Amino acid sequence: MAKREIIGLTEEVTIKGKKVIARIDTGARRCSIDRGLAEELNLGPVIDERKYRSAAGHTKRPVVREEIHIDNTNITVLLNLSDRKKMKYRLLIGREALRKGNFLIDPLT
Predict the structure, then answer these.
(1) Which residues on neighbouring strands pair with residue 69, listed in sequence order?
(2) Which of 1, 6, 21, 84 has the fewest C-beta atoms under 10 angstroms from its C-beta?
(3) What are the residues whose beta carbons fall under 8 Å from the beta carbon of 38, sequence distance 6 or more?
(4) Are 74 and 67 spatial neighbours (Cβ–Cβ below 8 Å)?
């Protein structure tokens, strides 16, 4: 088995050359990025639109594909665009990306 990189509940993620503090969320299946940040980084094109369930109910969100860099690992992820401006973290990393990167989450890190 390949060696796993240990990451914490928040990590510095590089996306399109910009460093962003992201929330690592094992309860989320997919990754999510704030629409404003996605626009600032000029992410795109939108490749799909998917339905998502959250505490706010069901919504349809645009999805983009982008490469991100977490702890010496580059992975290509699908990011859904949502309004996260009122949330502490503008980028959320979900299980699908964590599996691709073979990460181990240490909540004390």
Answers:
(1) 14, 74
(2) 1
(3) 44, 64, 79, 81
(4) yes
Burial class (CB in 10 A: 0-12, 13-18, 19+), 100: middle
Whole-model pTM above 0.85? Answer: yes
pLDDT tens profile 4-52 = 899 999 999 999 999 999 999 999 999 999 999 999 999 999 999 988 7
Q: What is the assigned CATH class of domain 5-105?
A: mainly beta
Residue 7, token pair as written in the block: 């990451």
Q: Could you say which DSSP state residue 88 is in?
A: S
Tokens 């969100």: give the residue: 61
Alpha helices in the chain, H assignment, sequence order:
35-40, 95-101
Domain boundaries, the chain: 5-105
pLDDT tens track for 83-101: 998 999 999 999 999 999 9
Q: Please tell me the total number of residues recorded for the chain in this structure.
A: 109
